[in-house]
């Protein structure tokens, strides 16, 4: 049973059937390939013929239109040449004018298809008309009359409205002078018939942009916004065009014809645009439908024929191959059945199964059978000899195999280059890791000189024969891969014991340190360069400035800062801001790179170091830079961003004795340029003034920093009073800085510095933290605290998280916290302000819009901002009793607030006479010195004193 099973397996997997299977796969693949190539070639030829046919149709249509236009112009010229027409226009006799063309009108209408004749005098007045005009109220007739009368040249035009007509206008000449103009028009019916006759296709005339007609609405194609005014085989062609309109747009149909299977036929639909006047909103198109069913059937039939022929050839070839191989392969199967027994020592069984060859002309199988018999005799003898020596060699072979496997595994698994050189420095062995990195084959390396494959960086260190005898050495060499990449290899060489024959050799172990070298080079580059713009960075610029000042020569530092650069990042994204920074860097380097060191100090700040430059040269350079950057910009997201900059100039040694002082002076000059606003650049005038201003700024920056760290501020509150009962329900929190001897410093002294130095966000957070600590003591009484937020805090990404943490830590109810932003900050970045206010309200806090009335150009924004309170600017409140305009504005703001369900607060209420007037306007709350002056927070909320001390 086992024998029969193995026999069946052998037959199923015999060489004959493998040859048949593989050849069948190959032949079938070739059949499919040639069939596909044939089909592709037929399809390509058909595509080319259709493209040529469509192009020819388009040319014929244009020629037909041109011939119709030329004919119409000739008819107009003949009409204008009528002998009675010119004198009739000159005399102004209407009857004579009508009789001059009455005899020609029937002929022109019936034989030439003329739809309308218009006669104008030299002033463009219509004198007579025959026929029915086109239903188009926008025909530029007066423009046509002016053009023909001024140029005395004929004019032709094609206009499409509810139908398409060709127009021809020619001047009427009498004794060489233009006395008037005659205009003829006719429809495209003759052109449509000619196109149908020439192309042999169904033709339709489509007009787009016209309103849906009252008659025959079924011809209106909504998808194309067009009306079919003429077509052949209406019933069948209309359904086809409706299907085409649903599948593709008219523009796509103009670019390439559409093929579809419709009602059992293959149809190709093409469109040809008719050129018309540029001022028209309606356009005309010829739609051509061709039946390509016979061509497609022919292609499919030829493809099937090719496939059938290929399969027939495959079957014939396989049958012939099977007939040739059947008998020889049977003998091979018999021989294959004997060989396994021979391999297992069945020598007698093999000799008995194979007959002795007796043919006079032996073939290869006879030779193989004879060789097998002889081999069985030799193997039987050899088996006896091997058996005697096998035991002796077994142990030695096993030992060598273990040693070989260990060495081979060590060489191939080590992640280093391992190469052995002979006495001449030629490679005699290389491991797999080296071959993998070098992307080469072992045969290509063996026998080559080590120095040729890995050239040394220093030719003096290349070792010849003498180097092989040296002790262990170390060096770095280069390696260029097949892809052209340069790699650095650290080599460690050691001598090997010399063989019995030959000279000394050595083993070289290499470690790829390319990435380490690249990292070292990158770190060196990054230490001096800005990675975004590839200019020098702040560190290198400071060092270069210090070296330049040490040389004792004069020079200048130009520090420039891009204006409103933050808007670029917020409106178009940081990737757009990076692009603009690179453009500025490229512009500065290309124009002024040869003049000195250019660096990006960080953010949107750049600096130029001009050695040997005086004030005049520095100002001349500034005057070049400012307009150059003004013309540098990019478009992104519908926005145009320009690299407008403010530039400060400081001279050394006039404005500083070291690099730090020079950079501070240049920074001060740059801010002076920003404040100036017109010139956009500023040169520090004197050392004393510059140092005083710089010291003043540094003083306040340090005072603010120290006050934030040591709680050197004091919170005050001013009541916001409900006007009808003078009840106080919430207070506005005000900030003061503690001065010497217990004095309080007003915000106008330190808030501008904080905004310019970026400390305002920390200041806002300080006020919020202390206000929340105080709020938890009065919230149970229904009292709220209002805290002002600066415009910069609106761009603080961590504001919401800070509020969440502080509300949780203080235990304050967010419903009693009112956060105010100024109207100016909201208008400057409306989308950001709206998002921040909404996120604040999501936390449960309330919001207010401060100083309302001076920044908004439209009350529309008021409904878009998520605020609960509107604080009317005090400039309107103070003049309310004396200025009628203020009363109108305040009343309007109050009405708008009521309409948007927002509560209004009047600021600067400084006298009692204002209170009843404000109440009459419906304003709920008031704030001002008359209602309550600012007092210390601890006077109103004594419990907050302990919390502030702890904080």
Written description of the protein model:
- The chain is of the alpha+beta class and 951 residues long.
- It is built from 34 helices and 33 strands.
- The strands form six sheets. Strands 24-25-27-28-29-30-31-32 form an eight-stranded mixed β-barrel.
- The longest helix has 66 residues.
- The chain is flat, with a radius of gyration of 49 Å.
- The N terminus is likely disordered.
Q: Let me know the number of strands.
A: 33
Helical percentage: 40-55%
Number of helices: 34
Unreliable stretches, pLDDT < 50, 5 or more residues? 1-11, 459-467
Give the strand order of the largest sheet, numbering strands 1, 2, ... along the chain.
Answer: 24-25-27-28-29-30-31-32
Query: Ends: how far apart?
Result: 97 Å
In short:
By secondary structure, the chain is α+β, with helices and mostly antiparallel strands. The strands form 6 sheets. The protein has an 8-stranded mixed beta barrel with strand order 24-25-27-28-29-30-31-32. The protein has a 6-stranded antiparallel β-sheet with strand order 7-8-6-11-10-9, sandwiched between helices. It is flat, with a radius of gyration of 49 Å.
